[in-house]
Amino acid sequence: MRILSVLAATCLALSPISAPVALAQTYHSGNWAAAKVGQACYVFTQRAARDTSGALVFSFGPGGYNAGFAYEYAPWPGENGAPWDEGDFVILEVDGQEIWLGDEMFPGEGINGYRADMTSGFVAEMIAAIKAAQSTVGVNFDRAAKGEVWVYGLFATEGFAESLTEAGAMCGFDPNRLPSS
Fold it and tell me: What is the pLDDT of residue 14?
């Protein structure tokens, strides 16, 4: 019986089932979190305000290169189809005041759903805008065909600076001096 147990343990240890799982290094602060997965680092919101949806996600390669920023839409249960129309555009707000950076975001369909991505050259300005915020960042869409502005996501800024600093430490970059990609 003991030999069978040793044999079973040896087979299990050599089995692909027991192969090590890739783990993410994570950090949480306030409404934000940071994670390192493989060579990439992410800083993202953990929850949206009541009656809004989605997440804000920053991404950074090693050394802070190839920085990105996106709003990733999370559909409501039973919702099908695109959450916005082709002629709609993003309006970003910081503490309830519209900022020009929404003009640099482009809605589309991503691998896992719908998202609006920022032109990469403006990510440093988005970081500065969120760091300067007192309380919230809002993602709205001007629904051109409907003649209305819809709030899609409202996010607290508490914990952003700390999570960003931690991501910089994880991936070896200074969040205040992103390299040009």
Answer: 36
